[in-house]
Design brief:
Elements lengths: L10 E5 L3 E7 L5 E7 L4 E6 L7 E7 L1 H11 L4 H13 L2 E6 L11 H5 L6 E8 L2 E4 L12 E6 L1 H12 L2
Antiparallel strand pairs: 1-2, 2-3, 3-4, 4-5, 6-9, 7-8, 7-9
């Protein structure tokens, strides 16, 4: 008995300065969103069927984890290569990075965090408890669960991401 599965239609949306968003509906009717950030980070979201901006589950993968998952699923890496070319041309990356509970950056000021590494990246805004704090001062203190909007070179964003997420 043969079974042929039809592939879902995938909607691709470019997110300037962020990456590429892919959206599709599963056979069971779930809305799946995959965001490939220019930094190499990937977010996989299971969203509400009626409101794709309401997410029920979020899986965040680092660059190496995303590559491993792509290998396991047997997907092409064409998108990744295109993204790298675009990054090298633009020279700028923007990423949203959550401050993990065990992060060494918890309770530290932006000045302290941004000057821990020599790579070029800055935190230009912070999302906290549903509120956006645009252009926070260098004395602003990070808390677990904050989402830092980081801008800089791809290497700088990656280095700052590691600091915000490591213990």
């Amino acid at each position: 008995m043969g079974y042929t599965a039809a592939m879902s239609e995938v909607t691709e949306t470019r997110l300037p300065g962020v990456g590429i968003r892919f959206t599709f509906e599963t056979r069971d009717g779930d809305c799946i969103v995959v965001i490939n950030h220019y930094s190499g980070r990937v977010e996989i979201l299971r969203c509400d069927r009626d409101d794709p901006d309401t997410c029920h589950e979020v899986l965040r993968l680092g660059k190496d984890d995303a590559k491993t998952l792509a290998e396991v699923l047997g997907q092409s890496r064409v998108t990744e290569e295109v993204t790298r070319m675009r990054l090298s041309l633009e020279g700028l990356t923007i990423d949203w990075i959550e401050v993990e509970p065990g992060s060494a950056c918890t309770g530290r000021t932006l000045h302290d965090v941004e000057h821990q590494d020599e790579e070029a990246a800055s935190i230009v805004a912070v999302l906290r408890d549903g509120e956006t704090i645009a252009a926070p001062p260098s004395t602003f203190t990070l808390e677990p669960g904050d989402v830092a909007i980081v801008v800089g070179t791809p290497e700088g964003v990656e280095a700052l991401s590691h600091l915000l997420q490591s213990g």
